[in-house]
Request: fold
Amino acid sequence: MTPAAGAVVSWWPAVAVALPLAGVAVSAAFGWTERRRDGLLAALAFGALVVALGLGAAVLAGRTPEVRLLHMTSQLWMLLRVDAVGALYGATVAGLGLLALVYAFGYVRPGPRRARFFAFFMACLACTLGVAYAGNLLTFLVFYEAFSVLTYALVIHEQTPAAVAAGTKYIAYILVGGSLVLAGVLLTFFLAGDLSFVGGGFLPADAAPGQLLVAFWCFVAGFGVKAALVPLHGWVPDAHPAAPAPFSALLSGVMVAAGAFGIMRVVFDVFGVALFGSLGVAPWLTALAALTVLVGAALALGQADVKRRLAYSTISQMGYLTLAVSLAGSGVMAGGLVHLVHHAFMKGTLFFCAGLWIHVAGARRLAELRGVGARMPLTTAAFTLAALGMIGVPPLSGFVSKWWLGIGMLEIGQGLALAVLLAGALLAAAYLLPVVYAAYFAPPEGRAPAADRAAADGRAAAGPPAWGGAREAPWTMLGPTLVAAALTLVFGLGSHLRGFPLAFAERAARAWFGGG
Amino acid sequence: MDVVDARPILAPFVSFLCAGLVFAFGRSIFWRRFFTFLAAFIKMGLVFSMLPGTLRGVVYVYEFVEFTPGIGIGFRADAYGMFFALVSSTLWLFTTIYAIGYMQGDRDRVRFFGFFALCVSTTVGVAFAENLLTFFLFYETLTICTYPLVVHAETREALRAGRIYLTYTLIGGGFALIGAVMVSATAGTLTLAQPGILTDDVGVVTLAIIFVCLTIGFGVKAGIMPLHGWLPIAMVAPTPVSALLHAVAVVKVGAFGVTRVIYNVFGAELLGELGFTVPLGLLAGFTIVASSTIALTQDHLKRRLAYSTISQLSYILLGAALLTPLAATAAIVHVANQAFAKITMFFVVGAIARTTGKKYVSEIDGIAARMPISMAAFTIAALSFVGVPLTAGFITKWYLALGALQADAWWFVLVLIVSALLNAGYFFPIVHRAYFRPAKEPWPPFEEGRRFETAKTLLFPIVICAAYVLLLGVTAEVPGMPFSIAQVAVESFFAGGGVAP
Reply:
């Protein structure tokens, strides 16, 4: 274990993971009122966010909090260590997790499955934080696998045949991917005798190139499943519409990003930039990422289901991250990291809005959105803001991250990558703006078909009236949506401020690329 | 360092004595339980009292009789034997508790508990056998003692299973005997105390015949394909028997035997030159994948577990066959890891059958609502078989895979990954059904005055074993845990060369 600069032993990373984990017990507690349970869960998630932000501040102050958790054998131990990129991702997870949790209080219908939803939700949140703060490959693998498997219960939450089918597809993809990651971890240990992340990588450059290549592709294929790299993306468009909206938001916003985060860790903290460059795999990874950006966006165009459309958008947007990694330039990587955060809150907003449309208006498909803009003005405004951000309209956060991505690409002379970036943005406009158009400008032709259906199966009786007098969703759901949308603006306007993602991203890029 | 001590012979003798007392006084429930528990505790005490010495490198030996120089009955508690004895005697205690609950009101309990004790006695005898003759003696006795337990129900099906079991194992025993005689003739000794007693100056053909005979002889009980036929059929036995004998004692004795043959009869160095272990490894690799694939199709819970056992045992054989220190460590540790996880599963399946009468995978939809603790334990064991980190199975998988890479057998890493996915494929649907499917019909309510989902004697061993599966995964290297003993054993196998860091 190489001690990092400024390493301090600190239990706070473990606390950040433990707080949401305690929520599992709270959810399972019998005999409590739902209000009391919800309040406690929110407090725990808020606590995790505070700790995550505190860890971020510590990292910016030049410290590296770390703690050894379990010592299994002389080769295997669990280590939490917060570096710049971990702190950034962790704060994003905690932030979006809190918003999604509050949103879910209103969204998830009361019933016996409600407690199960929150138990698994909190466990997933805890494990994703664990991924963020993992200090070695084993710890990463433990938390990564754990939240991947726990996600299954949330994907099939509705227990409709479609949801169960999506869940089966999901778990099959994820288990195969996880096995490949394990193979990569094994090979890494075999070659290096170590697993702890180090800024410049720790794999010996003189190892057999064949074995290094096998390890690399095992990692990329394994994490690529989660990161939705085309052609490993099959589970994404099925799992997202099946899951309840608050979890779709978390899944798309931070959990898919965990795959990209894993690729990042492997390339920069396991292989290191130099070895990665000399392996000659970068062009292939670039091609794969570019394909993901374009194919994901192109497939999004044809989707009638709004959540499905957003899921394809996630595939495309995650392609940017892998693209940034593969280009291995410090500027473009900083842009990629910033995009990870900005995308999380934008995509969170979009899924929150899609969920509100389903929950309040029963509108799942594009054609059912006619006139929803007039009925639910705040929700639709939030969607529009996030959609514009996703396309990259200044001064929203999406513009900022794409700007830095683009500048970074030009710095290292990757004009073709810039073309992919711009094409992705154009396609984003093409698949997101029709949703906005349908919501605002498509004339409502009498009562929408979905409202009839909702009224027919009696859902109109419960909750707000389905279409006729529908206004906005209750504040527990609308509030997080608006906060997430506001963050799109805040991250755009304040991007250069200390404590905002760019400061972390630059620090991370320095650790990976040295100097610059 | 060898120390003369009576404990290696006392440990098997205690259960032997217990069996006699149970047969004599067992009609009274009290005395039956009293003797069984007393023996279980004394035996555990005896074995555990040797543990500190073993960790220091002390080997306890006791020579019983010597017929002719070099040929006799002797006992020797080396690290590997200690490892096996610790696992068997610990699990005997838990299985006894479980069996008392499970067999309540069943027929012929005197015979059942008597032979049960005899089986454990012989298992520990095998563990502490100083030479192949002693080993063989106990090995064959175990075969015979298990028969009354397999046919316990005395139905046509049970009797048929018993016949098939005897056919397989007695023919296997014959092969083992031929092998042992040839070893004696070529090496002039039968001792298992050295890292290899054979040398290559007797000719490759002779050595090959010896290897094949001994591997077939012990491989039958280890269920290596195509010699596995008896194992799924023997699942007709009562669940405690399936649990202890078909997850621990009988099958592990086979795997233990093969390991002894590889490391103490031939020796890693000689086999490395001869290359006999390569086909054995391939066969084990095939068994791992093939029996897991068959397990996917089994609807009967215990049969699914049986095929899983066949697959898991070949992990041990393959780990031993790779001839690298890390793989050998994994093979030994897996004896414990597999035992605790599989016995947990058998216990749970038996508890489900006793509580609800359900025996098929397709019948247990929603059972987790009725038996939450049992299903949680089952889930832990399932995770361990898939090899999820923080469970026992991960430790095995990690060291096996590293050992395979050390031996340049990268294909085996692939086998491990495929096997893990297949394990997920046949265990996760059970977990899914139990937790996420609504019950087809209401489950029987708790019995009058019961606070727990099933009898306490059934539940207690389940919880302990499941907890130990986690402990094995998290604190593997704490001195006294199986991993540390395995390391001592491996050091003796690879004289001079310890476990790689």
